[in-house]
Design a protein that fits this description.
The complex is a heterodimer of chains A (163) and B (199).
Chain A (H helix, E strand, L loop, with lengths): L12 H18 L6 H8 L10 E4 L1 E2 L5 H4 L5 E7 L2 E10 L2 E9 L5 E6 L5 E4 L5 E8 L2 E7 L6 E4 L3 E2 L1
Parallel strand pairs in A: 1-10
Antiparallel strand pairs in A: 2-3, 3-4, 4-5, 5-8, 6-7, 6-9, 9-10, 9-11
Chain B lengths: L15 H13 L3 H21 L4 H17 L10 H21 L6 H9 L12 H11 L3 H13 L7 H4 L4 H21 L5
Helix pairs in contact in B: 1-2, 2-3, 2-4, 2-7, 3-4, 6-9, 7-9
Classes of the chains: A alpha+beta (163), B mainly alpha (199).
Chain lengths: 163, 199
């Protein structure tokens, strides 16, 4: 019955169109873009002050990790990287807020911004060991941005994550 | 750049590649609304390409966001704004394959195991599969080879005016996919009809 290589007979044109319409139904109705994903992506790339003078890069999760695994009630430690730069953060829930302990490698007095949807951006500067702490950060869809110190302007961001 | 109050955005009234190009050029000038329009209108393309590679929904969400961050990184270096959908298709495929390799790498895949990976595709939210017909269709589709699944999804997308050119950019020109596509559709029908036995 199943002939995966079946070269013997093609579907008549009418039937091809019918089954292509079934695929379209599957694509559009059974497997739609998840609710909220467009808004999440719009937030993630709505970043101030970028122009062609600023080198911009996106951080990735360390290999094998998924954002789904770091969402939710106890996000814990998360490592991001891009090129030679590593950003480690530890997220702790404190009531309605979150506390973010971070460590940037290579170390330096880099600027750190934490963006949370519908809230003011929290700012701090890492110490010369690359460490930073932000307390009382509102919970919600969060993105961390690092503006690297020294040299030409370079900014990196994490993906937006729902905490 | 500060837009003049009361002026329609430059992409107003445009469609397809012209519209995306106008948005992209405005975004380069610092218009962040324009980027939002691109994300809203082209996220389905990125999503379905990621899903077509075989990623589960959570991984496809991550890839979709990564692709948009890549666009931001490359905003000023894209040489042909009218070819945005092609660039997105290629980038989405590359990101999705990279993620897929990472997730599958742990499992030593025999052909039998590969079949199981395909058939273990988690169902979408159950409320979306309203009837027996949809469940059969879902099952039949995910029993197809990965290549067929990808090709058929891409055929549907490429047939839409706003995504025209994506298949060609991804090295799937219409002429050469014809016969393969026909076989994939036939396999889909056969598997759907065989699905009555509950296999």
């Amino acid at each position: 019955m199943n002939n995966e290589d079946g070269r013997d007979e093609d579907l008549p044109p009418g039937e091809s169109a019918r089954w292509l319409a079934e695929v379209a139904h599957l694509v559009d109705d059974l497997d739609p873009v998840p609710p909220g994903l467009v808004e999440l992506c719009q937030f993630a790339i709505d970043i101030e002050g970028l122009d062609d003078e600023v080198e911009f890069e996106a951080l990735r999760l360390a290999d094998g990790a998924q954002l789904a695994g770091v969402r939710g009630d106890s996000p814990g430690a998360i490592t991001f990287y891009v090129g030679d730069l590593t950003v480690m953060v530890n997220i702790t829930r404190t009531g309605e807020h979150q506390r973010i302990d971070g460590w940037l490698v290579p170390a330096g007095e880099h600027g750190v911004e934490v963006r949370v949807v519908d809230h003011d951006t929290a700012n701090t500067t890492a110490d010369e060991g690359g460490r930073f702490v932000l307390t009382e950060v509102p919970r919600g869809t969060t993105q961390i941005r690092v503006n690297l110190a020294g040299g030409r302007p370079r900014t990196v961001v994490t993906p937006a994550i729902v905490f | 750049m500060i837009s003049v109050v009361g002026t329609d955005p430059p992409w107003n009234g445009l469609r397809g590649a012209e519209r995306h190009a106008a948005c992209l050029l405005a975004a380069r000038e610092g218009d962040r609304t324009a980027l939002g329009v691109i994300v809203a209108e082209l996220s389905p393309l990125v999503w379905h390409i990621a899903r077509g590679v075989g990623l589960d929904r959570a991984a496809a969400e991550d890839v979709t966001q990564q692709v948009w961050l890549s666009l931001l990184r490359n905003l000023h270096s894209l040489t042909e704004p009218r070819a945005l959908v092609g660039w997105l298709g290629i980038t989405a495929k590359r990101e999705a394959v990279r993620t897929h390799k990472r997730t599958v790498a742990q499992v030593e895949l025999t052909p039998e195991a590969a079949d199981q990976v395909v058939s273990s595709e988690p169902m979408p939210e159950t409320e979306l599969l309203r009837g027996e017909r949809d469940r059969k269709l879902w099952k039949a589709f995910h029993a197809l080879s990965q290549r067929c699944q990808e090709l058929l999804r891409l055929t549907v997308l490429d047939g839409r005016a706003e995504y025209t050119g994506v298949a060609e950019a991804m090295k799937m020109p219409r002429g050469s996919i014809g016969p393969t596509r026909g076989r994939c559709l036939k396999n889909l029908r056969d598997r759907y009809e065989d699905g009555d036995g509950g296999t």
